Amino acid sequence: MADTAHILILDDDTDVAYAAQMLLRRRHGRVATLDDPARLSNLLEAGAPDVVLLDLNFTPGRIDGAEGLAVLDRLRALARPPAVIALTAYADVPLAVEALKRGASDFITKPWDNARLIAAVDSALARRSAAAGAAATSGLMGDSSAMRDVKSMIASVAPTEANVMVLGENGVGKELVARAIHAASGRAGATFLAVDMGALPESTFESELFGHRKGAFTDARSDRAGRFQAARGGSLFLDEIGNMPLASQAKLLTALERREVTPIGADRPEAIDVRIVSATNLDEARLFDPGVFRPDLLFRLNTIVIRVPPLRERRDDVPGLLHHYLSLYEAQYRRPVRELAPSALERLCAWSWPGNVRALRHACERAVILAAQDEYRYEDFGLAMPAPAPLPEAPARLAAVAAHDGADGEFRLGALERETIAAALDKARGNISLAARMLGLSRAALYRKLGKHGI
Ligand SMILES: Nc1ncnc2c1ncn2[C@@H]1O[C@H](COP(=O)(O)OP(=O)(O)OP(=O)(O)O)[C@@H](O)[C@H]1O
């Protein structure tokens, strides 16, 4: 990493720039200097640097930092913005803080301590390479022994044509696992198509999955391919299969057994060429209940089963995920890079994460937007409320909400919303699609609310 890193030192004081260059050259491949920001465009044409050490004042006599901050804004607007370390005069803390607010990843005061400068550059490079690595492995992060097992299962099954069933609670990363299987398979060049089976109404199930011919029914104004045809040559991800009505299960079973589908209104079946990966958040006791899921369909789908454990059972993954998503949102919202206060990290690792990685991701987004201190505090993540307790019946529930919120029996909308969502999830046995429908929300809107309430 260090050998190929490209570092730029932007400082009008050539002695300072030269000293930094000599220091960093011992460790890094390309260390360039520039004394005039007006020539920055030429330099960027040759490729954006990974890290820029940026002096904030160029014109002699100017100390307001406006020139440097303007360069910082320009660098942050690049498609692949470099990490920027601001160089400020000793004691110019307000200017350093302003640079951090505008997206600088760190600051160094002049004259600097060599070890501190080297550490700042190394840490900026390490963050960048962690983010790039995560993107390259289709985003499935985590190095706990449980996640290592999941990744090694993916590597073993991906090259085969075996049907894979991914099991785990909402938000554990089942879709990411399915995508990783596709990406490592011989079908990687073709489509990966995800279908939310829980959201397909029984009445349009066949038309959506198998397609239809023009005129087959009143609304069939033209031929339409189903999901099986659209994913031809690739992988079809059947998500939320635990929520399919039994009648739809029978139709899916027939298609999988015969390896062919007949579009509605067609007189001939079409062979299917898809790799099936399915997923559900049903616990296994319910999945094996024939009243809920047909055993013969289960047998077709679960040639290989991958279980993705909830985040509370792989807490070793929490720090890496936090750093990943905090960095991602800091870059996305152009917010300063902050460290996590050690006490916050400890409490976040101990949190039960009922919404798993999705909830962690939402919590990080919230923290990046709302943090107002130098470090992220636990409160910034919006997880202060305990996980929902079993719900009392309706009238008692309202009283409980009022009591929960204190304030002389005054109702608070937020708490009521949280209770309602928890009740819907309870009733839908954790099925997100069903709960969203019961609440009159889209799945995406429900996910946002789950994140907001830390459920
Ligand atoms: N191991 C992981 N590394 C990085 N991000 C993850 C990981 N697992 C999940 N995520 C993120 O969490 C969110 C939820 O992941 P995903 O949709 O794959 O979960 P899921 O189990 O399929 O959820 P659901 O059952 O609710 O459909 C996504 O934003 C995803 O990027």
TrEMBL record:
Gene3D superfamilies: 1.10.8.60, 3.40.50.2300, Homeodomain-like, P-loop containing nucleotide triphosphate hydrolases. Keywords: ATP-binding, Nucleotide-binding, Phosphoprotein, Transcription, Transcription regulation. Residues 6-125 form the Response regulatory domain. It comes from the Bacteria. The modification 4-aspartylphosphate is found at residue 55. CDD domains: AAA (cd00009). Residues 140-369 form the Sigma-54 factor interaction domain. PROSITE patterns: RESPONSE_REGULATORY, SIGMA54_INTERACT_4. This is Sigma-54-dependent transcriptional regulator. The lineage of its organism: Bacteria, Pseudomonadati, Pseudomonadota, Betaproteobacteria, Burkholderiales.
